[in-house]
Amino acid sequence: MAKELTSLAPEMITHKADMSVPFFRYEHIYRPYRKEFLALIDEVCSRGAFILQKDVREFERSLAAYVGSSSALGVANCSDGLTLCLKAAGISTGDEVIFSSHTFVATAAAIHSAGAKPVPVECGPDHLIDPYSVASAISPRTRAVIPTHLNGRVCEMDSLLQLVDKYNLLLIEDAAQSLGAKYKGRFAGGFGQAGVFSFYPAKSLGCFGDGGAIVTDNADLYEILGRMHNHGRLPSGRVTTWGMNSRLDNLHAAVLSMKLAKFDDEIVARRELASIYQSQLHDVAELVLPPGPDSDPDRFDTFQNYEIEAEDRDRLVEYLSSKHIGTLVQWSGWAVHQFTELGFDCNLPNTDRLLERIVLLPMNTSLSVSEVSYVCECIRHFYGYPN
Ligand SMILES: Cc1ncc(COP(=O)(O)O)c(C=O)c1O
């Protein structure tokens, strides 16, 4: 069992027969702090502060300080943020950009939107981009690599940094799922030229709609991004580069600042939930669990998701659903390279196999210890293990 269950949702006394564990409770990102949110919304709206006001600047400063980057820029969502980074870094037609096929299609779409060719590669047993597969996909046209730090875990950065250094490639991090995660003491988003986060409501730092941010230590890139996300306009109003409208709403920035101040508690709670899954499921031979929160001193995982591999996955999902337990297979079970209609034509057998086995168990701070234990009991029962 988890050591100290201090940060988790309070227990509700529920009879097991009535237990229902949805995959995510969207209303929970609002309800526990309803009064504070209403006061904040009232304060911001009463100031008439809606677009690019001080709340955006304050959030950007706090986020940059949190991840140890020089600057942060609020954008409308992570997908736009990735596109902006690639364009601002000069990626365009004729270039190739390597990414892991086990990611959201948004990663590849950003590459396509920048005019470049998305080149999908395998993920390793950790479900993250496989540096060997990256190495073998590098061609004379390769200009950049986008590792996706999936599920709240940073990719194997030592090998990736060596590769991008050796071949003089740009590194743009898709950190949509990994705010706060660390590798050898460094935060997700802080390894490359830029890193991009998502504040989609179900993300560990979620707002009440779409939102995202770019972090970078590169002052020139930050200056270009600052223009490009606001129609390419200079403070004078003169436009010297094509841009787009991709600003983080001021109201969302205020909400995100409030949530960022409590973000460490969110991570503690997620890591506690992961410990419970680990302790109650570790002996189930039909499963592969993610590494436990304290299993590797080089990693600090934030458990945006709890992605397991399961034998007989589809039947397990069906069984859990009959027990009123919600699960989710990321990307509805399709890796990006499997979208042949988009022009992909490559063989990634490890990723194909993984996509047949993976499933996300409920992982969010609305969950109580008994709910997670109920999920574990049902899984054990499905595979014929005693509770
Ligand atoms: C790995 C990954 N990349 C990119 C995105 C896109 O983020 P957004 O919805 O903020 O555009 C997501 C969102 O789910 C994601 O999980």
Features:
387 residues, Aspartate Aminotransferase, domain 2, alpha/beta, 13 strands, 3-stranded antiparallel sheet, binds pyridoxal-5'-phosphate, disordered N terminus, 13% strand, Aspartate Aminotransferase, domain 1
* Tally of individual domains: 2
Determine Rg (CA atoms, Å).
21 Å
If you average the pLDDT, what whole number results?
Answer: 96
Structural class: alpha/beta
- Between the first and last Cα atoms, what is the distance in angstroms? 14 Å
| Largest sheet, strands/sense/barrel | 7 strands, mixed
Envelope shape: globular
| Annotated CATH topology of the largest domain | Aspartate Aminotransferase, domain 2
The CATH architecture name of the largest domain reads 3-Layer(aba) Sandwich
Within CATH, the superfamily of the largest domain carries the name Type I PLP-dependent aspartate aminotransferase-like (Major domain)
Count of individual beta strands: 13
Beta strand %: 5-15%
Helix content: 25-40%
Q: Strands of the biggest beta sheet: in what spatial order?
A: 1-9-8-5-4-2-3
CATH class of the largest domain: Alpha Beta
Low-confidence stretches: 1-5
